[in-house]
Amino acid sequence: MSSSLKLDDVAVGGRAWIAPMTGVSDLPFRRAASRLGASYVATEMVACAEFSKGRPDVVRRAAVGEGLPLMVVQLVGRDPAHIAEGARLAEAAGAQIIDLNFGCPAREVTGAQCGSALMREPELAERLIASAVAAVAAPVTVKMRLGWDDASKNAPQIAARAESLGVAAITVHGRTRCQFYKGVADWAAVAEVKAAVSVPVIVNGDIVDDKTARAALRASGADGVMVGRGVYGRPWIAAQLEAEFEGCAFEEPDADTRLGIVLDHFHDALIFYGDRLGLRTFRKHLASYVEQAPWPANTEDRRAARGFLCRLESPAEVERGLTALWADPDRRLAA
């Protein structure tokens, strides 16, 4: 398997991609994952209508920053003019790939008839794609689900039309919107999308390690994998999968290495958001880092440590507590 994919004139240096995730893939996280070898990490979902108005929190979600190997901005909306303007703004800010969200199942998104709700409106989806492609020189990609529900699995049809409109790659989560994250991802169903198009297809859903990544690739025939929830607390997972695809050994980070990864990520969040918001925003990452670590060995002790650390009110306390925990993993932090 080649270690890169070409999207029009843009080369993506790997086949294990990290998904756009609201509240997770902010700039500090993307920097952390990129430092650890990820070649593709998309922004949080950016609402075009608010992005074009310059709303600070939305602009922050699209933050480009420096030092990233690739800049991918994901846009969501249902107005072709807003999508076009969002794409232009993102490209002007440095985005090298524009991704359109036709897959988010969250009620607040589908309630606004965006995200995976667009799978029920293929003609509008086509207009949104055409609008984005016409607005920018950067490659436009689409992330979708299999369909709205089991009775309307129309991903192959939408994908084929997207390719004809100029889309450079398609990512498919192997569930319908109505499944949310229940059950298991149907990787084999993604094979129908792969058969319908000639552009790269990326399979997404329930990919958490080398075993599941390889199984997803076999079942779908896809060109690459996208990891979503499997990246929580493990921003090195893309590099791990790439190494394993190439038959190279990969060692999970030890306590000292993990501590450095977490603290670098934490300090970046504090700089990006400021201490107060940075601490609050980082807590979900902190919880995942502790939950995913093999220390303390006892699950209950690890859960107690996670809760204790996430209740601390100052960055210095968090740093001291985490350092103490992983310097002596058998100690109990909870008061």
Mind explaining what this structure looks like?
The structure is a single chain. With 335 residues, the chain is of the alpha/beta class. The chain has an eight-stranded parallel beta sheet with strand order 3-10-9-8-7-6-5-4. A two-stranded antiparallel ribbon has the order 1-2.
Helices and strands in order, then pairings?
Layout: E1 5-7, E2 10-12, E3 16-18, H1 27-35, E4 42-47, H2 48-51, H3 56-61, E5 72-76, H4 80-93, E6 97-102, H5 107-110, H6 122-135, E7 140-145, H7 155-164, E8 169-173, H8 187-196, E9 201-204, H9 210-220, E10 224-227, H10 237-245, H11 255-273, H12 275-292, H13 299-311, H14 315-327
Parallel strand pairs: 3-10, 4-5, 5-6, 6-7, 7-8, 8-9, 9-10
Antiparallel strand pairs: 1-2
Helix pairs in contact: 1-11, 4-6, 7-8, 8-9, 11-12, 11-14, 12-13
Structural shape: globular
Estimated radius of gyration: 20 Å
Structural class: alpha/beta
As a percent range, the share of helical residues equals 40-55%
Largest beta sheet, briefly? 8 strands, parallel
Strand sequence of the main sheet, in spatial order? 3-10-9-8-7-6-5-4
Percentage of residues in DSSP E strands:
5-15%
Q: State the end-to-end distance.
A: 51 Å
Low-confidence runs of at least 5 consecutive residues: none
Helix-strand topology string:
EEEHEHHEHEHHEHEHEHEHHHHH
Any key phrases for this structure?
single chain; 335 residues; alpha/beta; 8-stranded parallel sheet; two-stranded antiparallel ribbon; 10 strands
